[in-house]
Amino acid sequence: MSIILAIESSCDDTSAAVLRDDRILSNVIASQKVHEQYGGVVPELASRAHQQNIVPVVDAAIKNAGIEKSQIDAVAFTRGPGLLGSLLVGVSFAKSFAQALDIPLIEVNHLQGHVLSHFIKENDDSQVPRFPFLCLLVSGGHTQIILLKSHFEMEILGQTIDDAAGECIDKAAKIMELGYPGGPIIDKFAKEGNPDAFQFATPHIPNYDYSFSGIKTSFLYFLRDRLAEDPDFIEKNKPDLCASIQKCIVGFLLKKFEKAALQKGINQVAIAGGVSANSYLRSELQRIGDKHHWKVFVPKFQFCTDNAAMVGIAGYYKFLKGEFADISLPPYTRD
Ligand code: KG4
Ligand code: ZN
After folding, report:
1. Atom of ligand 1 nearest to the CA of 173
2. For the chain, is the Cβ count within 10 Å smaller at the N or the C terminus?
3. CA distance 335 to 98
C-alpha cells in the first residue's frame, strides 16, 4: 500500500491531492479569480497566487484525507508542460516537502495526468478503461487523439497544428465579451440556443490532425459583418451564437475522433482535459458511442479541469514501477 501526495500548479489552479494506491482520499483545488478581469491568465499573477495558495491547499488536502504527514510515501508533482513561474512554485514545494520527509519524488507530465484521470478510483465500483483505448485530450493548451496501449504507452495519432480547442472556445467567448474562461460560459448559454442557427466552416486538415485558428477567424469576421448591420447583434443572438460555435467545434473534434476509433478498431473511448467538461461534447460522444456500441468514459467534472488527483494517479503508476525523480530536475514549459 502507498500513500501519495500530489501537487499540480502548471497554469492557474493550485491543487493538492492525496491517494491511497489508486483510490482518491482528497483533492483540493484553489482556482485563481484574479485573471478574470484580464480576459486570460497573467503568468506573473498566477505564480504569485500559487505562492499564496500552495501551503493552505496542501494542508487542506492532508487534513481532508485524514492522514498524518508521516504516512506519506512519495510526492508526485507536475513537472510540465505549463507556465514556468507557475510550475516553479509546485516543483519547489514538492522538492522541499519530499526532502524534509526524506521520501521519493515522482515527476508527472501534465498531459499524461489528464489522460490517466480515468483510472482514479473513488469507490470499489469505479470502472476504468481497458487497454487499448482511445482518448480525446482537449484542454486550453492541447488537442490530441491519443491511443493508449498501457498506462504510459501513449501514441499521438493526431493533434492540432495551431490553436487548441479550448483556446478557440475561449477566444470565441472573448470576441462576444462573455468573460474568461469562456468555455463554461459558452456551454451555459448554448443550452438555451439553436445549434443550427448559424453555420461556420471547418478546415480540411489531413489525417487525424486538427486546426482551430481558421474557425476563430471566421467567427470574428462573421460577427464583424453582422455588427456593422446591427450593433446589438451579439446581445440579441447570444444563446444561438454559443450553441452554433459549440456545435461547430465539437462536431469537428468528434468527426475525426470517431474516424480514428473506427479505423483502429477501438471500442473503448474517453475524453479528458478542461473541454471534456463541455456538456454538448459529453452527450455527443455518448450518442456516437451508443451508435457503435462503444464503452464511453467521461471524467467527473472535478477531474476534467486541472487537478492534482490526476497527477497522483499518474504518480501512483510510476511509484509501482519505481520511477523516481532526482531533486535536481527543472520544470519544462513545452511538451
Ligand atoms: O485542462 P484545463 O483546465 O487547463 C489546461 O491544461 O489548458 O483546460 C482549460 C480549458 C479552457 O479553455 C476552458 O474554457 C475549457 O477548458 N473549459 C470548457 C468547459 N470548462 C472548461 N470548455 C467548454 N465547456 C466547458 N464546460
Ligand atoms: Zn490541463
Report:
1. 14
2. N
3. 25
Q: What crossing angle do the helices spanning 233-264 and 279-292 adopt, rounded to 10°? A: 30
Ligand 1: centre distance to CA 68 (Å): 33
Q: Are 130 and 179 in contact (CB under 8 A)?
A: no
98 alpha carbon – ligand 1 mean position (Å):
31
Q: CA distances (Å), 45 to each of 80, 178, 251, in order?
A: 19, 22, 35
Query: Is 306's C-beta closer than 6 angstroms to any atom of ligand 1?
Result: yes
- If we measure between CA atoms, which residue out of 66, 69, 160 comes closest to residue 111? 160
DSSP bridge partners of 144:
137, 159
Q: From CA 159, how far away is CA 207, in angstroms rounded?
A: 10
Instruction: Name the phi and psi angles at 147, rounded to 5.
Output: -100, 120
Say how many Å lie between the CA of residue 159 and the centre of ligand 1.
17
**Ion ligand 2: residue ranges with CB closer than 5 A:** 139, 306
Instruction: Per residue of the chain (335 residues), give pLDDT as tens.
Output: 999 999 999 999 999 999 999 999 999 999 988 888 888 888 999 999 999 999 999 999 999 999 999 999 999 999 999 999 999 999 999 999 999 999 999 999 999 999 999 999 998 888 999 999 999 999 999 999 999 999 999 999 999 999 999 999 999 999 999 998 999 999 999 999 999 999 999 999 999 999 999 999 999 999 999 999 999 999 999 999 999 999 999 999 999 999 999 999 999 999 999 999 999 999 999 999 999 999 999 999 999 999 999 999 999 999 999 999 999 999 999 87
Residue 31, classed as helix, strand or coil, is strand
